[in-house]
Amino acid sequence: MKNKKIAARLVIVLFSICLLTAGLAVTVSAYPEWYRSDFTSDDLFHNDPSTPRLIDNAGILSESQFSSLSDQLAQLKSKFGADFVVVTVDSLEGLYIEDYAAEFYDQNGYGVGNNYSGVIMVVSFEPGNRQWWTFGTGDCEKYFTKDNVNTMDDVMEPYMVDGNYYMGISEYFKKVDVLLTNGKFPKSFSEVFRCVMFAGIPALIAGLISLGSASGSMKAVSTAVQANQYLVPERSNIVGNDEFIRTTMTRTYSPPSSSSGRSGGGSSYSGGHHSSGGHSFSGGGRHF
Amino acid sequence: MSSETNNVPSGKMFLHKCPNCNATLEFDIRSGNVICSYCGSSYDVETLLTENGRPEQGTASQSSQAAQNAQTAQENADAPLREFDWGAYKKHLKREDLSGTKSYLCQTCGAEVILDTITASAQCPYCGNFLILTENVMAGLRPNGIIPFKILPEKLSDSVKNFYKNKKLLPFHFFDKNRMEKVRGLYVPFWLYDCSLSGGITFLGDKVSSFRSGDYICTETSEYKLFRSGDMTFARIPVDASIKMPNDLMDSIEPFDYSQLTEFNSGYLTGFIADRFDSDPDENLPRMTTRVGNSAVEILRQNIQGYSNVRVSENGLNMSDSSVKYVMLPVYLFDCTYAGKTYHYAANGQTGKVVGELPVSKGKKWLYFGIPFLIVFALIFAFLMMLS
């Protein structure tokens, strides 16, 4: 009886170890086929202009959507002299989406000019982890600030959540067009409203303080409530006697404050992300 | 005594006449004397004689007999001059109707003049001479003192300017001369109360200390019983004795400088209007006791140092030795009308202190709110827009 139990336990432990090892092996070995972990800046190259800028590996775009999005990206390229690349995938194959975007861009030879200027968007349909990420690099990097990325992600998000992927990506790149043309976005109503509120409250306080100090003394008349000035000090004397009654003690729980905090949130941003190709990307993305 | 609409002139009156030319005399604020505006003669108030040719000044011994005469005084103006004594007056008090009017014959022009029953000094509307209504200021109703006017009516505008100097919300041109209705100088009857308080108050007070012990903050509160006792004497607390005078205005023109309080003489009244009291010391006592009570608590509380959260636990103060004097104090009254509302002002005729509620200009209110609002708003808004 006893030996059987021990044997059964041993089998379970061994089986678990096998599973874990297999899992690890799968994770480690599942890099994308284009990925070279020994890629360095010496390996950077400019690919053929005819290399596709829109790669729909996830197969989410219809034919007409594919061609119109390709046209949109091509137009942007001719307008701004930078590469605009969109990749959709079913799996990130073990890479973080930031690394996927940056490495895909470098190792496939995208980018225009000495500093490989361009924008890359990766849309991943990995089950349970659907997300997109966009990076700007070279001349485009400086426009991909946290606020700007947020603004563009805000436009894209509702479409992606609704499953209208073509519109989401297309609208995003329309925003990119606006951003690169103007250098910034015009302020949204909510931003202006926020500024109005932040300025309005102190202004209101300032106005009320000023009004209060000006109107403080308009009523120079009141019924007398005291007669201190009529006290005759030389005919007055005061004696005192203080008597202790009791002491009460209260204890309040108040541990010394610690400054540990954790930031959370649906959207993420990465500035100055370095690819193994050695140059810097900035941008962000969201889950959907 | 009083009659609402009595056609027969019934009241006694008196005019201070110039011994030199028989014209009427008026009190001159600048010199403190009475002067004859006709012949220019000037007389010391104290040398003035009554219509019977006696000096007016009363004496202490006479005033002690006021008890007997308080009642009859009004009927008999020839009675010896008495000073007011509340105890005696009360003893013989008969319910007087002081709200009506009474008619007099002006000794100068012979016109019939109808005046409030309480009038002590008035101007004849026909000949302009100042009449002293003897029965309201003589004998048992003779005030115990008077502070003569020190501020000239024409100097009042300086006091008014001082008064509104820093009142930023005042409408423009509010106190312009053409808006200020006629300034009236009058003697207002006041009670001056003396009283003593004895006994004590038990306060409770805390001493609090706190310290940290591990994850806890410990607060140690020690409670103490603080007994403060003693005697406090208050002297000459003024309370106006006139029903028609607004109490808050009369309270607010305090303080008066009592060093200039002198013996009453009707000569001070000539040239001004004056009323006798129509609200007696008993009726006004609560106004005084409230003030004294609050002050006593405050004075005793100030004696407590080093405790927090000091509160009254038991008030055992008793008032004693309360006494009262009847005095005439100089007051200017004037009104201003703004936006259909009349604003009443009073000024201390001795010190020039002006009091009253000022109207608020809506436009200025917006200005004082709007300008800082706009500046702060514009600065912060511009800064935020630049930042984002």
Summarize the structure in words:
The complex is a heterodimer of chains A (288) and B (388). In chain A, 41% of the residues lie in helices and 20% in strands. Chain A has 288 residues and is of the alpha/beta class. Chain A has a domain at 34-187 and 272-287: Diaminopimelate Epimerase, Chain A, domain 1 (Roll). In chain A, helix 2 links the parallel strand 1 and strand 2 (83-89). In chain A, helix 2 (63-80) runs parallel beside helix 5. Residues 259-265 of chain A have low confidence and may be disordered. With 388 residues, chain B is of the alpha+beta class. In chain B, the strands form 3 sheets. In chain B, strands 6, 7, 8, 9, 10, 11, 12, 13 and 14 form a 9-stranded mixed sheet that branches. In chain B, strands 1-2-3 form a 3-stranded antiparallel sheet, with no helix packed on it. Chain B starts with 24 loop residues before the first strand and ends with a helix. At the A-B interface, helix 6, strand 5 and strand 6 of A face strand 9, strand 10, helix 6, helix 7 and strand 14 of B. Strand 6 (237-253) of chain A pairs antiparallel with strand 10 of chain B.
List the SSEs and their pairings.
The complex is a heterodimer of chains A (288) and B (388).
Chain A: H1 2-29, E1 54-56, H2 63-80, E2 83-89, H3 97-107, E3 118-124, E4 131-137, H4 146-162, H5 165-182, H6 189-215, E5 219-220, E6 237-253, E7 267-274, E8 280-287
Parallel strand pairs in A: 1-2, 2-3
Antiparallel strand pairs in A: 3-4, 4-8, 7-8
Chain B: E1 25-28, E2 33-36, E3 42-43, H1 60-64, H2 66-73, H3 86-91, E4 101-105, E5 112-116, E6 119-123, E7 130-132, H4 134-137, E8 145-146, H5 156-164, E9 184-213, E10 216-240, H6 247-252, E11 273-275, H7 281-302, E12 308-338, E13 341-348, E14 354-357, H8 362-387
